[in-house]
Amino acid sequence: MRGTLLKVVMIFGVLVGAVASAAAQGAAPAPPKPDAKPEMTESCPGLIATRSPLFMPASLRLAALERDQLRFTFIGHATFLLESPQMVRIATDYNDYVRPQVLPDIVTMNHAHSTHYTDHPDSGIKYVLRGWAEDQKPARIDVTYKDVRVRNVPTNIRSYDGGTERHGNSIFIFEIGSLCVAHLGHLHHTLTQQQLNEIGRVDVVFVPVDGSYTLDLEGMIEVLKSLKAPLMVPMHYFSAYTLDRFLGRIRQEWDVEVAEVPSVVVSKASLPSKPKVLVLPGR
To answer: What fold does the segment set 2-25+40-279 form as a domain?
Structure first.
């Protein structure tokens, strides 16, 4: 009985993967608007496909990722594990408190609090990417490893003495498969047009939604509207109350979907046709 059930699940996973692959091959990118800035269309691969939602819980995908797919898992706080088709693993805002169970190939970190970085990363990590530099100079990161490119856009943060630490945070951009993913880190302010141009078009954005330690809710909504990502994933909330406060406000703007598992496989073709907030349970 157990063997039969496993076979059914495997067949189902293969069928779902075939559907996703066919959808990806048939998706035609929308042409850029006449007034679109070149930076907004060339910074990331391709434009957003207009397809109906086709999210696949990672637990149902037993086969390897297709080359246009990405798997991401919410580990907790501001840490996600991203996995590419060539099985490059990336952990965001890597720290000493919340870590994935597997050793990442690449980790990104930010400087706002110790829950967003570590001074003692595992020596087996190939690339340790700190989103800040010494003497408040901007970090400049552009790393390619196998089928993944990681780059950053520096932003400022509030310092402990009430001032400003220039370039203490980085918005990290991950180009994986046909997708561009932005992790806003510990964002403290809205974005300038120059920063938006550097970020470029994004398909998925991981957004801090605490509304106090990072940017306030209205400011964060302004950022999300500026980025125009079709898929927005909340992070950096400390209680059900904090998350519900964000969702109550965000439902005035976009649809909200609450997932049952912390992992999702997504491709360009499976992105929602209109912006959506996807809530993943933290581990």
So the answer is: Metallo-beta-lactamase; Chain A (3.60.15)
